[in-house]
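Page 47, continued from p. 46.
Same chain as before, 539 aa.
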Amino acid sequence: MVAQEFTAKTKELIDNLKAICASHGLGNDGNEFKIITQVFLYKFMNDKFGYEVKKLDPKLDKAENWEEEIGKFSGKQYDMLLLRMNPDSAKLKREHYLSYLFNNQNRQDFAKLFDDTLRDIAIHNNDIFAVKTGTGARIILFDELSNFITDSSKRDDFCRAIVNKLVNFSFEKIFTLKFDFFSTIFEYLIKDYNKDGGGKYAEYYTPHAVAKIMASILVDKPVNNVTCYDPAAGSGTLLMNLAHAIGEDKCTIYSQDISQKSSGMLRLNLILNNLVHSIQNIIQGNTLLTPFHKDGDKLMTFDYVVSNPPFKLDFSDFSADLDTKHNHERFFAGIPNVPKKDKDKMAIYLLFIQHIMFSLSAKGTAAVVVPTGFITAQSGIEKKIRERLVEHKMLRGVVSMPSNIFATTGTNVSILFLDKANTKGDIVLMDASKLGTKVKEGKNQKTLLSAEEEDLIIRTFNKHEAVEDFTVVVSYEQIKEKNYSLSAGQYFEVKIEYVDITKEEFEEKMSGFKKSLKELFKEVNNLEKKLKKQLQGLK
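Result:
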C-alpha cells in the first residue's frame, strides 16, 4: 500500500514539474528532459541526505526538524558527520538544502542562487557522480537549468515554481523500497524522452518482460563479486534488471554508449537503484570504434554481458576505421559493407555481437537481443558468427519472442544466450512466438506477456526441458547437421497420427471422398460451360 501511494505521489510530482516547464514555454522542448530529470534527482539526493544523517545521529532522528537541529552543529561537527556518511551518498553543505532555497526564494536573482546551488553540489560530489567520456572528460551532475528559459525576466519565477513543488514532497519513507518501485518510477520519469531517434545508438526501450527474462535466465544461481557489462547501454534497463537479479551489492556495472542523453539517464538509474559505486564505469563514447574498458592494453572481459544493440544504422562514417589489424580478432566474422543505397540499413548489431563474444571472461555468459532473421541466415556474417558459437562451444540457447514485443519496431526479435562454460552442449531452443496478448499502444500494436508466461519461459529454459512445439534441447553436433540453424521450429518432430478403423469405416470414408470429388468435378464443368457462353457473347 505504501509503495502504491508513493508511486502515485511521485508520478504526480513528475507531472507537476512537466506542467511548470510547459507553462514557461518548455513543453516538448529538447531541454525539458534535462530539467525534469535533474530537478527530480536534486530532490531525491536532498531527501536521501536527510535519511542518511538521521541514521548516524540519534539527535537528528528524534528532532522535530532535523535541519534546524543540524544547524546547531559546529563546522567541525558537521565535517565529521559527512566523513561518517556512506561513500556512495551525496555530501551536502547546509546551504545546499531545499529548505535553504525555499527560505531564500524572495531574493533577487533567485534563479542564480538555484543554479549555483545545483552546480556546487555537482562540483562538491564530482568524484562520485560524474560520468566520463571516452577521452576522460567529466560530465558533471547538474546544468544551469534556469538558462534554458530564454526570457531572463522569467527565470526567477520558474525556479520558485520548481522549489515550491518540491518542498511539499518527501522521498524519505521510500528509501527502504527496492528495485520494482524505483524501476517503475524511472520508466515513468523518462517515458517521454526515451524515443529512438535521439542520436546514434539511442535505445529502443527494452520491455520489462524481455529484461526480466534475460536476467533471470542468466542468473540462475547465487553469485558474488561479479562484473556486468552492456556495450550499448542506453538508459540501463537491462543492467538494472541484471544487477537486481544478482544483488546490487554483489556486482559492479560497466557500460558504454555514444549518446550523452542515454548516459545521463543511466547515471540517474544507478543512483535510484543503489548502484552509485558503478557510476565511475559509465562511459559516453563509441564502443565499436574506441572501446574504453581495458585491462592494461587488452580489452576487459566480463562475467555477465547484456545488450539490446541497435539493429540497423548508418555507420559508414567510421566503418573503414574499424577494419584495422588490431580489430581483426574482435570482428572475426567481418564488417558489414557500406551499401550504395539505404546506408541506414547497415547491420550494426552484427558488430556488437562480435564485440560481446570478445568481451566474455573464461566462464562468462551473455544475453543479446537480435533480429530473428539472424538465427537462420544461410550465409554472410550472420552464419559465420553462429558457426563460431558452435565451433567454440559457447552457446546456451535462443528464445524467439512473440512479434511486436517491442511497440517501437515491427522487427521480430530473439534473445541469444551465450555461455563460454557450456562445452558439453544441451542447448535450449525455444519458440515463444505464440505466447502473449496483443494490445494497442497508440498507433502501434504490442504483445504483452503475462507474469505466468514470463515465468514459463524462464523455468522451462533453466530446467532444460523439452516441451512439444515449444522447446527442444539439442547438441552442438545436431546444430551442425541443421546448417547451424538456431530456430527451434526446424528441430520439432513432424508427427503423423495413425488411427485404427474397421474395413466398413474405411469403405464409408472412401465413398464419402468419391462423392465429394464428383461434386467438385460437376461444379468445375458447370463453371466451364458458363465461361464458354460468356466468351461467345463477347464475340
